[in-house]
Write a structure and sequence with these properties.
The chain is mainly alpha-helical and 201 residues long. Among the domains are: 2-75, Arc Repressor Mutant, subunit A (Orthogonal Bundle); 82-141, 3-Layer(aba) Sandwich (D-Maltodextrin-Binding Protein, domain 2), CATH 3.40.190. The protein has helices at 2-14, 17-24, 28-42, 58-75, 95-98, 101-112, 125-133, 176-182, 193-200, and strands spanning 47-50, 53-56, 88-93, 117-122, 139-141. Helix 1 packs across helix 3, helix 1 (2-14) packs across helix 4 (58-75) and helix 2 (17-24) packs across helix 3.
Length: 201
């Protein structure tokens, strides 16, 4: 039920099933399915549905506040006892840096701060960026957003990577424009920052 409660919080924050899905990496249909399951589990309607739109109702707002408390309690389950509370650094990371750049950095970090705990949150750049902006993460290693960074956040470049086009050996890789125009192109998630950069390129 925790995933459904987190999705409910996302719907409340971003306004619609579609917008929430874009931010948390789910389709609109998946978000709708989760909300229907949640309504079945709690036994009440959380949304007022008219046509193709759904608006959170008074019961939904009540459940929403309880959901935030439950999620917070769930996140605290792994924390040590109060008198032994260690600092927890919440780091978001896209898949490509988790076993490389981030792993190397954590070796140095743990050597310098052995009592600190680290909680890694995987995800796509768009979602992780929003979580940093909302204060849910302390930092995130992501692809730089094209729309810029809010003034209350700081962006630190860590690495630059070139675009690479991988093709079968029997294709003439020198004529890469024709290859992109004529051959099937395997994309990654278009809603991610990296996917948007590739689309623009």
């Amino acid at each position: 039920m925790i995933s459904e409660l987190k999705t409910l919080v996302a719907v409340s924050r971003f306004g619609t099933f579609s917008a929430a899905g874009d931010r948390i990496g789910l389709t609109q249909a998946a978000v709708s399915g989760q909300m229907k399951r949640l309504e079945e589990q709690v036994g009440i309607a959380l949304f007022t549905r008219t046509g193709r739109s759904a608006v959170i109702n008074a019961e939904g707002l009540r459940v929403l506040e309880q959901a935030k408390t439950i999620i917070s309690m769930f996140d605290d389950l792994g924390k040590p006892c109060e008198h032994k509370m260690a600092t927890v650094l919440r780091i978001g990371a896209i898949a490509s840096v988790q076993s490389t750049l981030l792993a190397r950095a954590l070796v140095v970090f743990r050597a310098r701060f052995p009592t600190h705990r680290v909680h890694i949150v995987p995800g796509i750049s768009l979602n992780l960026f929003d979580q940093v902006d909302a204060g849910e993460l302390d930092l995130a290693v992501v692809i730089k957003p094209s729309h810029g960074v809010p003034k209350e956040l700081r962006w630190t470049p860590l690495i630059e990577e070139p675009y690479v086009l991988a093709v079968p050996l029997d294709l003439d890789a020198r004529d890469w424009i024709s290859i992109l125009q004529q051959e099937p192109f395997i994309r990654y998630e278009r809603t991610s920052f990296g996917g948007r950069q590739v689309d623009r390129f």
